[in-house]
Known about the structure:
Distance between the termini: 63 Å
Largest sheet: 6 strands, parallel
CATH class of the largest domain: Mainly Alpha
Amino acid sequence: MMELIWISTAYLIGLIASRLSFPPLVGYLVAGYVLHGLEVAPLPNLGHLAEIGIELLLFSVGLKLKPSSLIRREVLSVGGLHLLLMAVMSALVFLWLDKQLTGGLVLGVSLAFSSTVLAIKVLEDNGELSTFHGRDVMSILILQDIVAVGLLALVAGKRPTPWALALLLLPLLRPLAHGMLSVSRASELKLLLGISLALAGGLLAESVGIAADIGALLTGIMLAGHSKIDELANRLWGLKELFLVAFFLQIGLNDLPGREQAMQALGLLLLLPVQGVLFFGLFLFAGLRARTAFVSSLALMTYSEFALITTGAVVNAQLLPVEWKAIISLAVAGSLAVAAPLNRYSHRLFSWVEPVLVRFEKKAGNPDRLPESFGVAEWLVVGMGRTGSSAYLALHKQEKRVVGLDADPTVLESLLAEGRRVVYGDAEDSELWSGLPLDRVKGVILTVPTFEVRGAAIDQLRKRGFVGQIGTICYYGEEERELIRLGASFVIHPLVEAGNQLARQILKDTG
């Protein structure tokens, strides 16, 4: 009965939030507070389910990560400087609100961290986890997680054991992990292997005094690069989303704050824009373009779920009054509720403020700079995944002058090593389409996965006066009609086309 009450309440309030154009997770946060306010008994293992959800989330991220792409000097410098400056500012505010020096300082530092769960979930939902700014955000989050482990150890009086360094050797087990995935041919076996590795990584990390989510991330990285990794990631997606509902629900289990405490939580929420502006300025200082800096800053403009853990430890150590648990809970929940819709429309928001923000960016040396020329190229393929790469190779075999564009640095690195002509270009970037050199271009093929991005790209190309061919993909009939209306020359249904090709080939082979 209790399971039905909690799950159905989460669904109903999540549905209302979705209909109001908020992400469902905002509804899950509200549902937690509603159920707690109605004094509905919590599910016995809700916290444990939430922990599993976070481990599966980080494991899924690790599946798609290439460690070398995370260690970039400009990203680490931005993350380090922001952590230092925000920690000082937050700590000063806490000292002003409450005179307990040690507790205020520790909690102030913890509020400098951003929500790993929200940032990764938003990037994943938007299909941006592997983009340039997605990897920037991931680098900073991992840096924050490492610092967070040390901070929690300090507060709780626990320290990682000397064996903690052995976790860095996990990627050396890659051949064994890859072999296990290869022999697990059934889909359900792949799923069970993924869950087992994620939980094993978390358990191993906890045994040496490290946060479980970092262990899950490392085991995901250990498995990355396998040819069947996309199938495993797709299988894990739904299960991971279900467990994460428990994470958002459990936030509401803390006591509801009174009026004075709610005002203090609101004061902390008012500091969020300061955090975002600071991130934006540091990204610009590191040489990134205004758009990359803006979208990355929005993804990081939250309070971390880690602050909930730190608060409990600080209160248990009697370094702060017990009411701070309710204050921080409301502040974290509020930051997630505010940040979720902002990130959903981050690209549209940037288009409104772009004329002002671009004035502050450096004009040269941007690592995320846009192409200024395609040379003698006459054909463009935007999105160099499997479909885009196939289109590129087909044009190349016919000796056409073709260039590929992609927003994933690791994809570009791999294709350049194979001798392909590819350049950086994010299809969601309006500046890409407004400044794209199209003088020689005869046709553009769009294979990016998100329908809205494909539609916006076609619309902007036609508004610029591009009269060449535009080909793209779709999966539903209503998508095809809209893409044609916006100006697509032709639209291909990949699954329908696969069936047509199979029929043509079998008829050809049988005469």
